[in-house]
Amino acid sequence: xxxxxxxxxxxxxxxxxxxxxxxxxxxxxxxxxxxxxxxxxxxxxxxxxxxxxxxxxxxxxxxxxxxxxxxxxxxxxxxxxxxxxxxxxxxxxxxxxxxxxxxxxxxxxxxxxxxxxxxxxxxxxxxxxxxxxxxxxxxxxxxxxxxxxxxxxxxxxxxxxxxxxxxxxxxxxxxxxxxxx
Length: 181
Description:
With 181 residues, the protein is mainly beta. It has 2 helices and 12 strands; from the N terminus they run ββαββββββββββα.
Protein backbone atom coordinates (compact mmCIF):
# COMPACT_ATOMS: atom_id res chain seq x y z
CA UNK A 1 0.00 0.00 0.00
CA UNK A 2 1.41 3.41 -0.98
CA UNK A 3 0.65 6.31 1.38
CA UNK A 4 1.81 9.92 1.12
CA UNK A 5 3.51 10.99 4.37
CA UNK A 6 3.84 14.70 5.12
CA UNK A 7 5.56 16.20 8.17
CA UNK A 8 4.75 19.91 8.24
CA UNK A 9 7.63 22.15 9.27
CA UNK A 10 10.50 19.87 8.26
CA UNK A 11 9.53 19.80 4.57
CA UNK A 12 9.10 16.02 4.53
CA UNK A 13 6.69 14.84 1.83
CA UNK A 14 7.14 11.37 0.37
CA UNK A 15 5.04 8.53 -0.97
CA UNK A 16 5.94 5.56 1.20
CA UNK A 17 5.30 1.91 0.43
CA UNK A 18 3.96 0.04 3.48
CA UNK A 19 4.20 -3.73 3.06
CA UNK A 20 2.98 -5.00 6.44
CA UNK A 21 -0.39 -6.69 6.72
CA UNK A 22 -2.99 -4.57 8.54
CA UNK A 23 -0.69 -1.51 8.41
CA UNK A 24 -0.83 1.26 11.02
CA UNK A 25 0.40 4.85 11.03
CA UNK A 26 3.44 3.57 12.97
CA UNK A 27 4.15 1.06 10.20
CA UNK A 28 4.05 3.98 7.73
CA UNK A 29 6.61 5.91 9.81
CA UNK A 30 8.84 2.86 10.16
CA UNK A 31 8.72 2.30 6.37
CA UNK A 32 9.74 5.95 5.86
CA UNK A 33 12.71 5.46 8.22
CA UNK A 34 13.78 2.43 6.16
CA UNK A 35 13.29 4.21 2.81
CA UNK A 36 13.24 7.99 3.38
CA UNK A 37 12.60 9.17 -0.17
CA UNK A 38 11.46 8.10 -3.59
CA UNK A 39 12.31 9.37 -7.07
CA UNK A 40 9.99 12.24 -7.84
CA UNK A 41 9.72 13.54 -4.26
CA UNK A 42 9.84 17.34 -4.19
CA UNK A 43 12.52 17.16 -1.49
CA UNK A 44 14.52 13.95 -1.41
CA UNK A 45 15.48 13.24 2.19
CA UNK A 46 18.79 11.49 2.79
CA UNK A 47 17.36 10.23 6.09
CA UNK A 48 14.18 10.39 8.12
CA UNK A 49 13.61 9.52 11.79
CA UNK A 50 11.23 10.03 14.67
CA UNK A 51 11.20 9.59 18.44
CA UNK A 52 8.39 8.67 20.81
CA UNK A 53 7.26 9.21 24.36
CA UNK A 54 5.10 7.00 26.52
CA UNK A 55 2.31 8.08 28.87
CA UNK A 56 3.17 7.95 32.57
CA UNK A 57 1.21 4.71 33.04
CA UNK A 58 2.91 3.16 29.99
CA UNK A 59 -0.37 2.52 28.20
CA UNK A 60 0.09 4.71 25.09
CA UNK A 61 2.99 5.75 22.87
CA UNK A 62 2.95 9.07 21.01
CA UNK A 63 5.30 10.69 18.47
CA UNK A 64 7.47 13.33 20.12
CA UNK A 65 9.86 14.51 17.37
CA UNK A 66 10.56 14.21 13.66
CA UNK A 67 13.80 14.78 11.76
CA UNK A 68 14.68 14.83 8.06
CA UNK A 69 18.17 15.39 6.65
CA UNK A 70 18.59 16.82 3.16
CA UNK A 71 21.76 16.85 1.05
CA UNK A 72 20.31 19.37 -1.42
CA UNK A 73 18.36 22.61 -1.19
CA UNK A 74 14.86 22.17 0.21
CA UNK A 75 11.87 23.69 -1.55
CA UNK A 76 8.98 25.03 0.50
CA UNK A 77 5.36 24.45 -0.46
CA UNK A 78 3.67 27.53 0.97
CA UNK A 79 6.03 30.27 -0.19
CA UNK A 80 6.34 29.51 -3.88
CA UNK A 81 9.95 29.62 -5.01
CA UNK A 82 11.34 29.66 -1.45
CA UNK A 83 14.35 27.42 -0.92
CA UNK A 84 16.11 26.48 2.27
CA UNK A 85 19.69 25.22 2.69
CA UNK A 86 20.61 21.54 2.95
CA UNK A 87 20.96 20.14 6.47
CA UNK A 88 19.02 18.64 9.36
CA UNK A 89 15.45 19.76 9.95
CA UNK A 90 14.19 18.72 13.41
CA UNK A 91 11.05 19.62 15.37
CA UNK A 92 10.05 18.29 18.79
CA UNK A 93 7.05 18.70 21.04
CA UNK A 94 7.36 20.58 24.33
CA UNK A 95 4.91 19.39 26.93
CA UNK A 96 5.95 21.62 29.82
CA UNK A 97 6.03 25.07 28.22
CA UNK A 98 3.55 27.62 29.52
CA UNK A 99 1.18 29.18 28.72
CA UNK A 100 1.23 26.98 25.60
CA UNK A 101 2.65 23.53 25.04
CA UNK A 102 3.15 21.80 21.70
CA UNK A 103 2.15 18.31 20.59
CA UNK A 104 2.27 16.38 17.33
CA UNK A 105 -1.10 15.57 15.78
CA UNK A 106 -1.77 13.54 12.65
CA UNK A 107 -4.57 13.90 10.13
CA UNK A 108 -5.63 11.26 7.59
CA UNK A 109 -7.15 11.69 4.13
CA UNK A 110 -8.30 9.35 1.36
CA UNK A 111 -7.20 9.57 -2.30
CA UNK A 112 -9.87 12.21 -2.99
CA UNK A 113 -8.68 14.37 -0.08
CA UNK A 114 -11.61 13.50 2.20
CA UNK A 115 -10.84 13.80 5.91
CA UNK A 116 -10.83 10.58 7.90
CA UNK A 117 -11.22 10.58 11.68
CA UNK A 118 -12.09 7.27 13.26
CA UNK A 119 -14.28 7.47 16.32
CA UNK A 120 -13.58 11.23 16.51
CA UNK A 121 -10.82 10.76 19.06
CA UNK A 122 -7.03 10.83 19.28
CA UNK A 123 -5.92 7.28 18.57
CA UNK A 124 -2.25 6.50 19.30
CA UNK A 125 -0.43 6.14 16.00
CA UNK A 126 0.68 2.56 16.76
CA UNK A 127 -2.97 1.51 17.00
CA UNK A 128 -4.38 3.50 14.08
CA UNK A 129 -4.97 1.34 10.98
CA UNK A 130 -4.54 2.68 7.45
CA UNK A 131 -7.32 0.53 5.97
CA UNK A 132 -11.05 0.52 6.72
CA UNK A 133 -10.89 3.93 8.41
CA UNK A 134 -14.06 5.92 9.14
CA UNK A 135 -14.65 9.22 7.39
CA UNK A 136 -14.86 12.33 9.55
CA UNK A 137 -18.43 12.97 8.40
CA UNK A 138 -19.55 9.46 9.37
CA UNK A 139 -20.39 8.49 5.77
CA UNK A 140 -18.56 5.15 5.75
CA UNK A 141 -15.01 3.85 5.62
CA UNK A 142 -12.06 3.89 3.23
CA UNK A 143 -8.32 3.50 2.97
CA UNK A 144 -5.86 6.21 3.94
CA UNK A 145 -3.90 7.78 1.07
CA UNK A 146 -2.20 10.61 2.99
CA UNK A 147 -1.10 11.14 6.59
CA UNK A 148 -0.11 14.67 7.59
CA UNK A 149 1.59 15.40 10.93
CA UNK A 150 1.52 18.94 12.39
CA UNK A 151 3.12 20.35 15.51
CA UNK A 152 0.34 22.33 17.18
CA UNK A 153 0.30 24.69 20.16
CA UNK A 154 -2.31 24.26 22.87
CA UNK A 155 -2.88 26.72 25.68
CA UNK A 156 -2.50 25.09 29.08
CA UNK A 157 -3.51 28.23 30.95
CA UNK A 158 -4.84 31.69 30.10
CA UNK A 159 -2.49 34.03 28.26
CA UNK A 160 -3.88 36.82 30.45
CA UNK A 161 -5.32 35.88 33.83
CA UNK A 162 -8.85 37.13 34.50
CA UNK A 163 -8.75 40.19 36.76
CA UNK A 164 -11.59 41.87 38.55
CA UNK A 165 -10.56 45.31 37.32
CA UNK A 166 -8.11 46.92 34.92
CA UNK A 167 -6.10 48.51 37.78
CA UNK A 168 -4.88 45.05 38.73
CA UNK A 169 -3.42 44.64 35.23
CA UNK A 170 -1.86 48.09 35.30
CA UNK A 171 -0.27 47.35 38.68
CA UNK A 172 1.36 44.27 37.11
CA UNK A 173 2.89 46.46 34.40
CA UNK A 174 0.44 45.63 31.63
CA UNK A 175 -1.28 48.29 29.55
CA UNK A 176 -4.95 48.87 30.23
CA UNK A 177 -7.30 46.54 28.35
CA UNK A 178 -8.76 47.70 25.02
CA UNK A 179 -12.20 49.21 25.26
CA UNK A 180 -14.89 49.09 22.66
CA UNK A 181 -16.52 52.41 21.88
